[in-house]
Design goal:
The complex is a heterodimer of chains A (468) and B (557). By secondary structure, chain A is an alpha+beta fold. Chain A has 2 domains: 24-233, Metalloenzyme, LuxS/M16 peptidase-like (Cytochrome Bc1 Complex, Chain A, domain 1), CATH 3.30.830; 256-467, 2-Layer Sandwich (Cytochrome Bc1 Complex, Chain A, domain 1). Chain A has 17 helices and 16 strands. In chain A, the strands form 4 sheets. Chain A has a 6-stranded mixed beta sheet, sandwiched between helices. Chain A has a 6-stranded mixed beta sheet with strand order 13-14-12-15-11-16, with helices on both faces. The two termini of chain A are 41 Å apart. Chain B is an alpha+beta fold. The chains are: A alpha+beta (468), B alpha+beta (557). Chains A and B meet through helix 2, helix 4, helix 10, strand 14 and helix 12 of A and helix 5, helix 6, strand 6, strand 7 and helix 8 of B.
Chain lengths: 468, 557
Amino acid sequence: MSRWLRCGGWLALLLAGTATAQGVTLPPAERFTLENGTDVVLVEQHEVPLVGLRAMLAGGASADPDGKEGLASLFAGLLEKGAGDRDAAAFAEAVGAVGGRLSADAGREAITISGEFLARDAGLAIDLLADMLRRPRLDAEEFAKLRERRRSFILAAKDSDPGDLVPLYANAFVFGDHPYGNPVSGSEASLAAIAHADVRRYHANAVGGDRLLIVLAGDFDPAEMRARLTAAFADWRPAAEPAAAVSPPQAPAGGRVLLVDKPGATQTYFWIGNVGVARGYPGQADLDIANTLFGGRFTSLLNTELRVKSGLTYGARSVLVQPRQPGTVAISSFTRTDATTEAIDMALDVLGRFRDGGVDAAMIDSARSYVLGQFPTDFETAAQLAAQFAQLAFFGLDDATVNEYADAVGSVDAGSAARVIDAVYPSREELVFVLLGDAASIRESVEKYGAVTEMPITAPQFRPPEER
Amino acid sequence: MALFAEMRRRNVFKVAFVYLFGAALVYWLSVVVQTQLGLPWWTSRLIALLLCVGFPAALIFAWVYEITPSGLKKAIDVDQTQSIVFKTGQKLNAALAVVIVLGTVAMVADRLLPELAVVEPPPPPAPVFDAPASARVPPEIASFTLANGLRVIVWPDHDIPNVALYLFVRAGGRNEVPGITGLSHFFEHMMFNGTATRAPGEFDEVMEAAGGANNAYTTNDVTVYTDWFPRSALETVFELEADRFENLAFVPEVVETERGVVYSERRTRVDNDNTGQLYEQMMATAYVAHPYQFPVIGWPSDIEAWTLGDLESYFRTYYAPNNCTLVVAGDVTAEEIHSLATDTFGAIPAQAPPPPVRTVEPPQTGMRRVTVEAPAQTPLLHVAFHAGRTADPDSLPTDLLLNILVGGDSSRLHRLLVEEEQLAISVGGFRGDSFDPGLVYLYLTLPPGADPSTVEARLFDALASVADDGVTEAELAKARNMMLAEFWRGMATINGKASALGDFEVFHGDYARLFDRAADIDAITGVQLRDVAGRVFRRHNATVGVFRPSADDGEAP
């Protein structure tokens, strides 16, 4: 039982390497592009004999075909289920036998492969990565097993971790038909619609050297690594199709409520927000300070009111999601069923005060110390460095994003923060509400927030039927 | 002219000189003191302002009053023949000379011997550190015990300008009895809610404004407080931590608010989580005597009922320096932690050791079963076996055995039950750290509609085959490599270092054993694993829990 569920959302937006008292300076990196367009970043760090690996394949769940949401995610899962000379069992054995880690996951805009190996096994890691990407087996039986297991995982989450599903309902409700509305891992309905031929086609069309970024950080010789990567990837074909660009989403009208009914639930999980801002937002430092104060740390305005002062919840926070196009900005919390509107009203009240200039110089100083004091800990290990360099390269951000971040945070003042708060955080009228709980108990009381759309948690998709 | 003569007679000019030189000396001293003590920048400005205001006041005072043998009198009331202004004037001359000499000496000293300007406190005696119990302990690590019994371990690591601090208190669910179950965990929450000197919430406000973050967790055995902060916050964090250990206060209204927070935590982790519900029932079934049977979060009736008195007596009993271990890893030196710990925690008095937990769980003599039914779609199967304490020799072979059974996609049970037979969608397991004999715990999530008894039979077959036939050399080699890699990954961060040092000190009895870990892992043999499996994986030693989805009305079909 820990004191509170730490939220990493906003911290993940911070990037940084070698830390000084007031900032972080990235270690030098060798960057080059292979003949076929694969981008490579190599970062030496010799403190411990480990190598961190991060590869990103542009595309991801945003490009999933309509009705087949979860395709990129299933494809990513199958990359671990046999490649090259190894079947699924042999592949897992090869990784485990040397104490390594290697996994593939789909996100909205990329499939990401993460690995960590002892330095002596760096060669094996590259061989396994090349096998996964170029020679995945995509075995029919493994496909059927994995698809069924993914479906079961959704059911298990509906039983035991309903809070984890709330953002999926929220994305579907806020983004509608826009690709950001897709559930990354699919729904019960969409998984059933994906055929084995779809993942094979996905490999031909959406996977290739032109879409690939490889980052290695840790204890290796860069010249040797360059030669090895060139041999493994330079002659790989491009994807048959170009990666589709995602258009900016439209923010939906506020005053709408999605109520997901879980009969018998003793608490209501709520998400209140709308469309936010994209990665590379020019006022990022102001936004980080603002969100830290609003709902990004224990003493934030939201957590202070909803937890510390009133005891209505175990935790309340604000979450920013910033993909290539504007993502979401939202309040997220949960409370006992009979306190649902009390907690939501309180959150709305906090948002109102926050937007009406509730951030002063002393608060900004405190948030500044917090943001700068915590961020070096995201850059301690080779695996963390690989992840940070991959984020920079993938989103086309330069090193200054990190190296000058402390200066940017240092120059935030009440005026600049107020402008960003006004621009990013929705007003009361613009808010969309997503609630998951016992509908029979709260159905009538939440009508005051707007027109209510209701769906059962047992529905096989996350989008409300009338929204399709 | 007569005015000037009278002013001279009344020593106004001498007072002016003495005042000016004296004021210059006082101002200079204030600047020195302000710099040395780190007082706010306006301290010396304020003093200068007061001195300026005082100057005309002193002159007027000198004009109006005269010092006489019978005390202070108005000058016009003093008989000129009885006046001693001349004597006073001589004293003022002497005072002026003294002030000028002092000022000169100070200025010269300031220029030439700045280090003499402020008297340095005598250096504290060099700290004495304990000798480590293993030659493998890195030389930079230091440990010591304060006079009040607080054990302190320091691992300096200067890669990033940050520090991780873990404070272990030997108090948890095992120290509870019916009526106060969950009190250890509730107490953990109250440790953030105010002291005699700080209001509720101030701990977090000060910590976060200094750049620090914190958390805490409670288990059956310990309560652990964790801080992660930039080096610049080191003194602040020590002051905050020692303050709450020494001066914790309980505000009745805050106790009620926090009760609501803990109930919300229970709803999230147990009531609305089928895995959490089944786990709670499993512990209550596997243990019939020992307090490990209580949920760490507490039974609902106890969450509603514990009192201020319960909290106060708990604080006195368990939150004593001699019942705690402090671990610091990061951008620090052992000497400064010794000095800080002495200055902050050193003043907290030791207490009588807490009463021992007497109850020993009697041996289990037959398989136990427990069922939870609720509206749901996915069944769950949990199986637990009584095993030993963390400090027992069996704990490491048990960990290797668990790695072979459930460690990753190439593990035995994952291959068999998830991949080959598709009886489960996931399988996991652990051996929790414990002071008293604990459990080896396996948990499986089953596909919707699965029959738990079929899966249970296959699981027991697989466990029996390990007890009968042991493991392969390849499995053992892989488990060793995975555990070694895991060990080194943990050592790559200051947080991992602090956590591991503390776990080994508290549960294995000496942090130094952490550094024997790699050699210990290499020394484990297949025969040991088979023997452990034979002792642990017996049907009579098992508790089996099933979560069975029921119809929506909450009644079993």
